[in-house]
Amino acid sequence: MSTQPSKDLETFVNPQPGRDYTIRIRMPEFTCLCPKTGQPDFATLHLEYIPEARCVELKSLKLYIWSFRDEGAFHEDVTNRILDDLVAATSPRFMRLTAEFMVRGGIYTTVVAEHRASNWQPATKVELP
Fold first, then answer.
1. I want to staple 101 with a disulfide (CB 3.0 to 4.6 A). Which of 46, 106, 109, 115 is the partner?
2. What's the count of helices (H) and strands (E) in the chain, helices before strands?
3. Model confidence over 17-56: pLDDT tens digits?
4. Pairing status of strand 94-104 against strand 107-116
5. Of residues 8, 20, 34, 70, which has the active-site annotation?
6. What are phi and psi for residue 21, nearest 5 degrees?
7. Of the candidates 82, 86, 74, which has an alpha carbon nearest to the alpha carbon of residue 32?
């Protein structure tokens, strides 16, 4: 195989650093292993962020997400670890990661983790008529 999973997150320069804008990325093929049973867990990850100076490069994000396939992880831990790694790589103004795990034992789990830069304030929401 020419491509392998990787924990390296590549970034590129934000092309519009003077503007708050939202990047939304949906990753419907996340898998990791249950640390108790070793069985696979499946999730859709929803990443939303307002970049500062750097944006995450999508191929490296795909390989990074793939790197969890053979790791045992609790849903709460893996969601927060992924957010921490993305924040470390990009230093965004705001970032939210929502992990929607598929049913296991009749239970669905959704974990939402957020980061907000200390010097960033969101713009006032505009309500259109």
1. 109
2. 2, 6
3. 999 999 999 999 999 999 999 999 999 999 999 999 999 9
4. antiparallel
5. 34
6. -145, 155
7. 74
Active site residue 34: yes
Q: Does 41 qualify as catalytic in the annotation?
A: yes
- What DSSP designation does 79 have? H
Cα 23 to Cα 49: distance, rounded to the nearest angstrom: 5
On whether the CB atoms of residues 123 and 20 are closer than 8 A, the answer is yes
* Number of neighbours of residue 93 by Cβ within 10 angstroms: 20
From 8, 20, 41, 55, active-site residue: 41
